[in-house]
Design brief:
single chain, alpha/beta, Transposase_27_IS1, 5 strands, DNA recombination, Nucleotidyltransferase, domain 5, about 35% helix, about 140 residues
Length: about 140
């Protein structure tokens, strides 16, 4: 799986002025005691994943993802009510309404259905962060 994922390059998303949604979902690495977060951004119209990150929900980690999205000069970035986002996303383009993240929340459910290791009630989980990232890379861009 690692050799396949190393051959896959992220989509080269260069369209400027789009709308994006950013969200996170949790999973396990190694054991159920070791929770990790998958934070990713999708372009709202095409539903393509622009970038993702596997790790904890710290401001520094999420900032790298948001910086990639901000380089695309977005007209709007939709997020949930996580308290980290307002300090990272400029206020004029940051939207936090009740139903603004329906597309990415639906994608979260699809991910949990398609990828067994992301299912909530399961005995399957990733043994390492490298394999989880490889699996997501193949799923998103393969």
């Amino acid at each position: 799986m690692l050799t396949i994922s190393n051959q896959i390059k992220p989509i080269n998303f260069t369209k400027l002025g789009c709308k994006f949604e950013i969200d996170e979902l949790w999973s396990f690495i190694g054991s159920k005691a070791n929770v990790t977060w998958i934070t990713y951004a999708i372009e709202r119209a095409t539903k393509n994943v622009v970038a993702f990150f596997v790790g904890n929900k710290s401001k520094e980690n999420i900032k790298t993802l948001i910086d990639k999205v901000l380089l695309l000069n977005p007209t709007a970035i939709f997020t949930d009510k996580l308290n980290i986002y307002p300090s990272l996303i400029p206020k004029p383009i940051h939207k936090r309404f009740q139903y603004c993240t329906n597309t990415i929340e639906r994608k979260n459910l699809t991910l949990r259905t398609h990828i067994k290791r992301l299912s909530r009630k399961t005995i399957c989980f990733s043994r390492s962060k490298i394999y989880l990232e490889a699996h997501l890379k193949i799923y998103f861009w393969g």
